[in-house]
UniProtKB/TrEMBL annotation:
<protein>
    <submittedName>
        <fullName>4-oxalocrotonate decarboxylase</fullName>
    </submittedName>
</protein>
<dbReference type="GO" id="GO:0008684">
    <property type="term" value="F:2-oxopent-4-enoate hydratase activity"/>
</dbReference>
<keyword id="KW-0456">Lyase</keyword>
<dbReference type="Pfam" id="PF01557">
    <property type="entry name" value="FAA_hydrolase"/>
</dbReference>
<dbReference type="GO" id="GO:0005737">
    <property type="term" value="C:cytoplasm"/>
</dbReference>
<dbReference type="InterPro" id="IPR036663">
    <property type="entry name" value="Fumarylacetoacetase_C_sf"/>
</dbReference>
<dbReference type="InterPro" id="IPR050772">
    <property type="entry name" value="Hydratase-Decarb/MhpD_sf"/>
</dbReference>
<dbReference type="InterPro" id="IPR011234">
    <property type="entry name" value="Fumarylacetoacetase-like_C"/>
</dbReference>
<feature type="domain" description="Fumarylacetoacetase-like C-terminal">
    <location>
        <begin position="104"/>
        <end position="257"/>
    </location>
</feature>
Length: 262
């Protein structure tokens, strides 16, 4: 569908107010059932532009639905992407405030620091690795604005792929020194193993997922800039958390990243 003029601004404001007010809202597609994925990316772009007009700065890109199992569950055959802003960055030494969130979950990811501009529609995983300066362990906090964390594909894209916060580990490794596909990961909650995964869970190799994102952005004449942070996708399912919970993700050869919520 082509969004009715004015509806895009109304939807963006609806999602922004849900986030600012920390309240769950019904899905956008409940009111706009014909919303397409293309429409949703336009809404996402408007939402990010609005946040940037209020002072936020773009610092990178995040990927979602990068596991084949998740894609099959959603009935799709490709990943999705959203944007990272500077005010989403959280720190290991600074507790997350649960009262600033709605119903958060956390995912273990591998973060890429892009060392050279990367743009095009024919970019390969090898190109991504050549353009990557370092990789690091990461945690992404997702916090859908939708009721009960339930949504369709256009809904989640419009909501910037449920983005909320992200944390980066202090250890950054040269990408040439690590086998990202075979890296193992264990994520613990309050000292007990919650999930396990490997780099191969991310479209076979995290760099493959990032190549997909570059090529997708290339269709919009966009790409990655030197210094961008890219979250390549979850190595396991997300884990819900609440005030008082601590989360640690330990990665083979890559170190760990931890967070505490109060």
């Amino acid at each position: 569908m082509a969004l009715v003029k004015g509806a895009d601004l109304e939807i963006v404001e609806y999602l922004l107010q849900a986030e600012k007010g920390r309240k769950e809202v019904v899905k956008v597609t409940d009111k706009h059932p014909d919303l397409t994925v293309e429409d949703a990316y336009k809404l996402q772009k408007c939402l990010i532009e609005q946040k940037m007009s209020e002072g936020s700065k773009r610092v990178g890109v995040k990927l979602g639905l990068t596991s084949k199992a998740k894609q099959q569950m959603m009935g799709i055959n490709e990943a999705i992407y959203g944007y990272l802003l500077d005010d989403m960055l959280a720190f290991e030494w600074e507790p997350l405030q649960y009262e600033t969130l709605i119903h958060p979950k956390v995912e273990p990811e591998i973060a890429f620091l892009i060392g050279d501009d990367l743009q095009g529609t024919n970019v390969t995983a090898e190109d991504v690795l050549k353009a990557t300066k370092y990789v690091a362990p990461a945690l992404e906090v997702i916090d859908s604005r939708y009721l009960n964390f339930k949504f369709t594909l256009p809904d989640v894209i419009a909501d910037n792929c449920s983005s909320s916060k992200f944390l980066l580990g202090s250890k950054w490794i040269d990408v040439k020194d690590i086998d990202l596909a075979n890296i193992g990961m264990v994520m613990s909650k309050n000292g007990k193993v919650a999930t396990t995964g490997t780099g191969a869970a991310v479209l076979g190799h995290p760099a493959e997922a990032i190549a997909w994102a570059v090529n997708k952005l290339g269709l919009q004449n966009e790409g990655f800039k030197k210094g961008d942070i890219v979250l390549s996708g979850a190595l396991s399912e997300a884990v819900a958390f609440k005030a008082g919970d601590s989360i640690t993700a330990q990665f083979d050869d890559l170190g760990s990243v931890a967070m505490f919520c109060e």
